[in-house]
Every structure is written in structure tokens, then in C-alpha cells.
Please model this.
Amino acid sequence: MSGAQVTRRARWRGNWGLIIAAVVLGAIALMAVAAPLLAPFDPYEQILDDRMLPPAFVDAERASPDHLLGTDNLGRDYLSRLIYGARISLLIGFFTMVVSGVIGTVLGVAAGFFGGRTDMVVSFLVTTRLSLPVVMVALAVVAVLGGSLQVVVLVLGLLLWDRFAVVMRSATMQVRSRDYVTAARAIGCSVPRILWGEVLPNVVSGLVVIASYEMAQAILLEAALSFLGLGVQPPLPSWGLMVSEAKEFMLFEPWMIMLPGAAICVLVLAINLLGDGIRDLTAPEGRR
Amino acid sequence: MSEIALELRRLTVDIPTDAGMLHAVRGVSLTARRGETLCVVGESGCGKSLTTLAVMGLLPEGAKRGAERMELAGENLLKASPSRLRALRGDRMAMIFQDPMTCLNPSLTIGDQMTETFLHHGKGRRRAALDRAVALLERVGIAGAAGRIGQYPHQLSGGLRQRVVIAMALMCEPDVLLADEPTTALDATVQLGILQLLAALQREMHMALVLVTHDLGIVARIADRVAVMYAGEVVEEGAVRAVFDTPRHPYTRGLMQCIPQPGITAPGTRLGTIPGLVPYLVGEVAGCAFRGRCPHAMPACALPVPVREDAAHAWRCLL
Amino acid sequence: MLGFALRRAALAVAVGLAVSAIAFLLLRVSGDLAATLAGEEASAAEIERIRGLYGLDRPVIVQYGEWLLRSLRGDLGRSLFYPESVAKLILDRLPNTATLATLGLAVALLLSIPLGVVAALFRNTWIDRLALALAVLGQAMPSFWFALLLIFFFGITLGWLPVSGTEGLANFVLPALALGWFSTPVLMRLTRAGMVEVLAADYIRTAHAKGLPVRTVLVKHALRNAVAPVVALASVQFGNMLSGSVVIETVFALQGIGYLAWESISRRDFPVVQGILLVVALFYVVLTLVADLLNAWLDPRIRSG
Model:
């Protein structure tokens, strides 16, 4: 067995975080995809007689055996809403990450590869973007354009690309000076071909780590926007919106804010740990 | 025979690794006297740097030290408490490290870094400390020393920085100065000046200088005594002339053939090389560690090897 | 140093202009300003009259130039909801947000620097892992949810602290905790990483070789070098806190500019939104400029280079 194999195995073995994160994330994704099959109730169906029934582990006497995690203030099944809520978080998280990833990567790679004036323009764009308060701008734009999923994805995508750009820029600059890129240039490869064939494959592992981080960021921001009433609109079961709807009953039914909040927390935690795990796995020294 | 400043008997340093215990230093005995320069030579990884770090009590985390005896000017270092050891470090024994570019704190002035040793060991007040720092900077050959006191390390060249590091180590006039390859990181043109300075300071301050190096040219120039290390052991030790003129250990002889000699080595001739690789020191090592590369190896070399002596030096070989 | 400062200042001015243009355009795209000003029952002719009166029929670039000049003189327009100027509204609320952000930063630094240092000193032990787990968990919690948990435990269950309003310093405790908590993980990781790197540096070994007490080595030689990037990031975090205050101030009904922004956005009072956006963004620009210069000054290699 070679030394490289030993260390790779040791890394996997020591990386329980990565394995747990992958399992949790897989389970949530499966839940989101199979929501119609898994959810015991229609998440929008209001049974007004069964309002605010607590889960059995909170109050066994008032709990209903039908509603495993209770019902909300309009008598909608909480478990079903939580299951459908995973769809919203994952959809927004994923597509925001794609939009911001494309913008950031294009800008970062261009800045790193061409340098000079291009680099100056990109660093100006990054600084400008960083100066804009994300939550405020997102709230304002959603207020103007309306709170649909597409608008939230677009706004967040346009606001969260900065880290992609910064990291891709430095990664590209490092790769650019390597001998094999110089060689590719010397034999007359076209610029797009060098970027696609030589640069991109060498920066892709860094990309995955940021992508996971930005996806987590997007999910947290969507929850915050929805919580503030200017994100995903009712009656969609966004987890952030669920916390918002439950907060006036917090005094008497605190479990109503605990459950959706904890759901966000678990999802974001899993995504972050996955990113950290991948970074440890691919980093040259395996350090964090 | 002058006063013994540093004495080591059967020093061992073990470093735990994933593959098992690495016996990096295996029973090293050394004696350094006041007014004498002892050079420790060997290839990288032979344990020479770890030996000096073990004396200072600055071994890397996890490394285990063992010894029969370890005395600094008659004081038993093995029994010294951590706080006593800190009191001795920088005061009675000082160390100069390899790379002057990274050994100085980038955010503190030269003066601050020099005086703190003096002040901490209670040698005097700030005024006295500054005066001593300026005097020492002048002594190590830094022009405009008074002006340098307020400068930061990055404002100095590598050679100047190493002079600062040397001056810093001498602030408290130590009994023993340990120098770990002090010139390796410097330009060849600067190296000689630094070495001559070290030798001169050693004589002036009547201290023991322990100089770790892999460069036999340096040894020939400034050593009084020399210890040759191989694979964690001292294989030959003695007066510099005896070791150079009549090397007894096959490894030492091999090393001697690697140096070009003025007037003897003609241009274009091949220098000697020692075939093979340094042995792997993880796990138990029995017998002579050099036998795998030794042209004279015989079955008995796998057994514990006695130390043999003559009037001028000692060596660890059956031959 | 001077050349560096001038380059950074030029970038700051350019970014400031870009940010102001974005704030200006936000109000333009939010709807027909003339129609809003004229009121809901206004006729088309009336709207046109108002358009002419306010100069809204001229080229956008001219309007932007005028608006920028007015803004620089401190005239940010009038609120559509309050009978006050935008500048006055912002100035009234700014001290509350500044207090909140300052306290939040203090909380973040008081948590993150000791935690980061301890984690670095005991790296790869359970202490390090615990600190890291805290950081990972902290990064995963939605801020509004953490704020609600604070309200629930300290405000409602224990009844120690007020949960909403702006009456006294006690009102700031929970919001500051909530706000500071979210800057803690990143600052802690940075302190830890800086400390780990510095502790392995040769000059730390030199300091030990001088026989200095451990405390002197850690504080004078290590921490000083390790926290320089933390200081730089902390000032950026301060800017993030100003914008993060939207969520926290709203949860705690704290009368700062974040709460004002949320109220104004909800009421479509866009002149106020525009003003706040401009002020917060420009503040951030100035802050990063100061941070860069401060960082350069802390590092003697840049200072004299």
C-alpha cells in the first residue's frame, strides 16, 4: 500500500463529520423529492378545529395521534409543512448557488487570467458588492418585484457571488503561472480552451467548498427574508416563514418556533460540514 | 584542561510517529568546554539539531528526552524545573537558529527584542539594556548601531539580521552558545564573516560554542573539537586535527572524501560519494547504523559496537 | 504608505459613486415617483405637472447628478410616511444602531479572541473541538431564530431582560448578544488560524529560547502578530453588523436604522430606504478604507515600505 493511499484512508476514517453530513443531507434531499409520498397531510389543508395541537413529546394529553409534530395556528399539519419546506430551502439554496457561482466564477477567472485592467474592474465590482448591505438590498428588491421563488433566487444570486470571484481569482492566478499553462499557450491553444481545459479542472475543488458555503448562506438568507415577510410569500411552507407565523404564539407554544428553526439549523449544518469535509479531503495537507 | 560548560551523557530523543517510535537521537554524549568551539557535523536528519534543542529544552511537542547526565556549568538540567529552565535559557545558555529571516519577530523593534532578554533576566534597567544592546550591535559589526535599535527586522538584510540574532543571544553573556547552522540560509559571501565573528566572540567572552553544521569546510576553519553524527549517534569525536588527519570511522572517511582539497583535487575529478541511504530509525536499531552503506561491513557489525579511543579521539567502530 | 493610501482612497471614491448610483436607481425602479407623489386619485395631467415640478422629466443622469449633490449636502429628501426629512429620521435612529453594533462587536471580540487563542493553544484536543463545534453551530443558526431563542430564554422564561423597545441599555443586551454571536465564528476561526500559524513561527521559538515567561511569549510575541488580521476583519464585521441589524432590530423592535429600513420597505417608503442604503453603504466604504489603512499601519512591513 502506498503512502498516499494510507493518508487518504486515514482522512476518510477521521472524517466522521463528512459522512454524517452526507447522510443527513441525502436524507433531507430525499425528503424534499419524495414530499408528496412522505407527507401525511396536504401542507396547505387547514383544519380549523385542530389548531395548534402540540406534538406528543411536548404535551401528550393535547397531542393528536394523526399529527406527529402537531399543527400550526391554522390547523395545518406541521410535519407535512416541514417536509415541503425542505423543497423551498433546497431549491433556493441550490439555484442561488448556481447563479452566484456562474457570475462569481466568470468574473474571478477573468480577473485572474487576464489581470491588469480586467482585474481592476472585477476588484471594483467586488468592493462595490461588499459595500451593499445584503439583507437591506434583498428586502427592497423583493418589495419592488414581489416575493416569488424566482425573484428571491435572482436577488440572492446577484448578491452572493463575491466569495466565488475572490477565490477563483487567486486560484486562477496561481494556476496561470504554472508551466503547463505556459506550455499550452506556447503551442497556440486558444484562451477559452486553456481556461476550460487547464484552468477550470485545477480550481474545481476550491469551487465545491465555496459552493457549499454559499448554498448555506442562501438558505439562511431566504429564511431571514421570509421571516421578515419579504421573501417567499404565504401560504408556501418556507421554514423562515413558519418561524415568523409562530412567533406570536412563542409564549405558549414555543415548540412552534423550535421545529422549523431547528430544521434550518440541521440543513445548514449538514451543508457546512460537507463543505469542510470536502476541503479537508482535497487540501494538500488535509488541515483545516 | 579548561572548565566544562556543557556535558551530555547518553542523550536520547524519541519522536512518536504514525509508523512507530522514531529514535532520532540515540545515546549522544558530548562535552563542551569554556573557550572552546565544538562542531557537530552530520547530514540532515542525523539528530544534530534535535540534540541542541534537547539541551535548551525546546524539543517539538510530543518528543521525549532521556539522558544519563545533562549538566550546564555544573548544574543538573535533568532535575531543573520548567521555571528554572526558563531562568537558564537566554541567560546561561543561548541559541542561534538557522534562518535569521524568520527568527526575529516582525512587529517588534530590534531594540525591543534585544533588551527583553536582558530585562527579563534582571540584568539591569532599561537604560543599561539599551546601552548593552548598542554596544553588542557595534561589536557584531553593525554600523550605526544606535539607529538600528528602533528599526524593524524587515528593514535589515539577511546578513545583518543574523548579526542581530547573534548579538541578541549574547545579551546576558551565556556560558554556552548553541548555534544551529547559523549561516546556511545566508549568501556564501556573508557566511565567512559571520563564522569568523562567532569564533572571535567565543574567545572574547570565554564561552563554549556548540556549532551545528553539515559543512566540513566550516568545521576545518573554526572548530577546536568536532563530533561526527550519523543516524542519531556520535560515530567519531575528538580534536579537529585528529579527526581530519586520521579519520577512523568509515563514515567520517567517506565525508572527508566528499570535500574538494585545494592543490589535491584537480578540476573535473569526481568527488567521493557515500553510496546508499540514511537508515530508517523507526523501531529498534541494533548494531552499527552505518553497516548498510559501509564498505567494510561484517557480520559482527550487527551487534552492539564498542567505543574505541586513542589519545586524540574516540570512535564507534570495530575497525 | 502614501501611495498605498491614495490608491485605496481612489477605489473608495469609485465604489462610493457606484453605490450611490445603485441607491438612486432603486428608487427609480420602485415605481413612478411622480404618481406616488401626486397621490392615488391624481389625474394624468396632475401627475405630469408634478413630474415637471420636481424635474422628473429630465434625463436620468442629470437627475442623478442633482440628487448626488443634494445628498452630499445632507439633503436626502422627504419621507412619504413621516412628516420629516429622511436625513432627520436617519440621524435620530443612527445612535441606537451605532450603540447596538458597537456592543455587538464587543461581544464578538470578547468571545472570539479568547476562544480562538485557547483553541490554538490546545489544538487537536477536546477544547479545540468544542470551540470549533460552537463555531460551526453558530454559523448554522438563522440569526432571527437565535434572537427568538434569546428572547424566549432570557426574556420570557427567566424574565431577566426586556425583549423589545429602546428605552435603556438593558434593551440592548439581548440584541447585542444576538448580533455579536454571528460574527464570533469567523473571527474565532481567524484568531485560531493566526495563532496556530504564529505559534509555529521561528520567532516564537526564539522567544522561548530567551527564557521569557510563557505569558510574555503568548501575549507580546504571538497574539500581537495573530490579531492583526482579526482587527482588520473586525472593522469589516462592524459594517456587516450595521446591515445585519435589519433582522435583529426588527426582532427586538429596537428603534435603529435597520428597523427603520424594514418598516420603510414594508410601507414602500422608498426615499427613506434609499437614504439608509446610501448611508450604510458609504459607512461601509469608509470603514473598509480605515481598516485597510489601520492594518497597513499595524504591519511595519507595509508602514515603512
Notes: The two ends of chain C are 6 Å apart (CA to CA).
